Amino acid sequence: MRHPEEAPATPFGFTGESTAGFGPAREAVYQKIFGEALSVSHELLPLIPHVDVYTFRRKSGDQEVYALATGGMSDLPMTLPRGASEMPKRVELIFYCSEPKEEYISTLRWLAHFPHTYKTRLGYGHTIPNGNPPGPLWGGDCLDTILLIPPIVVKDQKLAEELTLGGDPVSFLWVVPITGAECNLKLQKGLGPLMELFGQNRHLHIFQPGRKSYV
User: Fold this and answer.
1) pLDDT tens profile 152-196
2) What's the total number of domains in the chain?
3) N or C: more exposed end of the chain, with fewer CB within 10 A?
4) Which helix (H) or strand (E) holds 58?
5) What SS3 class is residue 57?
């Protein structure tokens, strides 16, 4: 997916759909999957939907891992193409890192608003470049694009079994920074070859800021 050039639809105003109760229901499931949140970054602007970002701490062997999960993106269904009723309508985003940073939280919040602002959808295999032309994410080296795929952490794959909002199951999409060369491979040959490279290089689910391109 490339960033659309047309002006975004306003994220303010009446939605036509009640989201009362969505927050507590989602938080109850998050607590079941992750435990208590270490912190919650509350959105200060009056945007619709209201997107908070939760930080959860986990252990992966001897290493501390932080899972950053959006909360609010799924309050509204995404805009699906005609005839695409089987595509997920409601999703939240998840990102794994060894150190939670405000710049990660800001990016997750921007991504969570993206489909609602531009009246589109985010789904499995979509890529979103960091600008045009893409620039390195978070002051890094060569990671300049976001890839969205299902999480590989088994617990987090089960969100849709636990959480239904407005009659729709809610799934996580894993936010994976990739390089421009990796994005080009995916655009030219499909997601399969890129996933094969991830497997060959034993790509970690925990974000590695200094990783080099697999292509």
Assistant:
1) 999 999 999 999 999 999 999 999 999 999 999 999 999 999 999
2) 1
3) C
4) strand 52-60
5) strand
